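User: I'm putting together notes for a lab meeting next week and I want to include a structural view of one of the chains we've been expressing. I don't have a solved structure, so I'd like a prediction I can at least talk through. The sequence is below, exactly as it appears in our construct file.
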Amino acid sequence: MRGCDFLVDDETAEEFTVYMKKFMDMYIFLSKIVKNHTIASHPIILDLGCGPGLLSIEILKQITDAIVIGVDPLIKMLSLARDNRDRSGVQIFEPVLGLSEKIPLKDRSIDTIVSRFSLPYWKHPEDSFLEIHRVLKLNGKIIVEALNRDFPKWKLFCIRIGMLLNRAGRDVTKYHVDAYKSAHTQEEVEMFLKKSGFVIVNKEGKKNEWKFIMVAEKK
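Assistant: Thanks for the context. Below is the predicted structure for the 219-residue chain, given as C-alpha cells.
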C-alpha cells in the first residue's frame, strides 16, 4: 500500500501551523459540514489526524455541546493542538496520540468522525477505514476531505509556486505537495468506504479538482 512518511520535524510542524492559520475559512467551511451531518445531542466527535487542532477548535465553535477528540501520530502536533486549544478558550477538546490503523477508542463510542487531508499518510487505509467503522456508533458519519490524486500535475506545480510566494517555506511546501504522491482518487476512497461497510450519502468535488469531500454512514 502506498502511504508517505508522516514524520516531520518540530520546526516544520510549527511552520505548518503558522501557515495554515492564514486559511481559517477552510476549517470553518468543513466544520459547518460536520455540524450538518451531526444530529446527536452532546455528540462525541473524532478529528482523525487533527494536526495542530485548528479544525477541532472550529467544530467546537459550531457545535458548542460537543466533545472533540483529536488523534494524531505526532507528539509535536498534539502539543501545538493543546496550545491552540488553550488560546482559543474552548474546553472540551482532547488531543490523543494514536494512528488511524489503531484508534485508541472503544467500539461504537463516536458519533461523527472527520479526517482532513490525513488520508495520504495512512500506511494501510483498508485497516484505517475498518477502525473508523469499529469506533463509530450505528448511523454515525465519516466525513473525509481528501487530496485528489487526479489533480493535474501542472496545477500542482502552480500550487507549489503559490505556497512559496505566500511564504509557506520550502519544508511546508514539500510536506503538502509530496502528499499528492500518496493521495487517492475519488473512486478509490469510495471503494475503501464501501468495503468497510459504509453507505455513501454525499460527495462534493469534481474529478480533477485539488480536493474532494465524501460523507458516508455506518449502517
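A couple of points you could mention at the meeting. The chain has a mean pLDDT of 94. The domain at 10-218 is CATH 3.40.50.150 (Rossmann fold).

User: Perfect, that's what I needed.
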